[in-house]
Amino acid sequence: MIDSQWLAVILTFGLPLLFAIDLTLRRPRNWADWLFRSALLLSFSTFLFLGGVVWLAIGSQWRWVLIVLAIASTIWSCPVRQSAETQYVPSRWGGWVSLIAFALPSALFLSNLLQILTARNVPNDAVDLALPLSGDRIAVMQGGQSIIVNHHFTTPSQKYAVDLIALWPDGRRAKSLSSSDPEDYAIFGMPVIAPCEGDILATRDDQPETPIGGANPQAPAGNFALLTCDGITVLLAHLQPGSLTVDAGTRVGTGQELGRVGNSGNSTEPHLHIHALEGQVDDITAAISTATAVPITFDGLFLTRNMVLR
Fold first, then answer.
1. Does the structure show a pLDDT above 80 at 89?
2. When you count CB atoms within 10 A of the terminal residue's CB, does the N or C end of the chain come out lower?
3. Span 141-149, average pLDDT
């Protein structure tokens, strides 16, 4: 059975490659055919370029392969390169059926592209926080105002949640694509710091690490710190067991170390989950399910998937 990470990589490169081969070898017979087939290739490739989930696993530089492939195939297959005069539209009903077959998925991916672009808009009422990690090459695994780039978006209390990871110097989040060793992940053990000045409302420090690829729905946040500041509550989750340096009632300053990134709770790989809530929320169950989410920025940036910081 193919590992899910490898399957994602194969589909990310395989489907655009099939579209490109089809466009290049089965040359368009009319301008409309070229337009719709090129639109499918370009929209799908751009959709993957912006919202794909594999780039932080294999290195973001590989994203450009898709774009170069799509543009090159589009130019090569352009009817203007053909010596004979090319029709604008199909002359047979089969050609029109083919156009519809390409037009529908093109419209879908163009719609998804619009969602990805609007997901980057900064909410007017966003609260600015300091980045809660002290390491380098921080990247965004989940974030933005769309389910396409942020799987938290449909959960009201986590609507603006962000999942942060770190990258090795080669641009990969782990030393191998589907490593089961948490030490292989660049963010594992990285210090978590307070994103604002405030008071610790609640903590947990006794949850074991979840095996890579596993889950712990009984304790979704795993080891965590709940921090209240400036009328909001901030949850920092999935910390290493035994790493917390603060307790409930502790007053902390911005930048003060709270613990270290782990993989505890309902987490498939080491990362730091953070989201903010209206008012003071002392209960962890309310913090992850029923409280009202607050949009957040970090050092003035609204974070969305595939952004790389510092």
1. no
2. N
3. 96
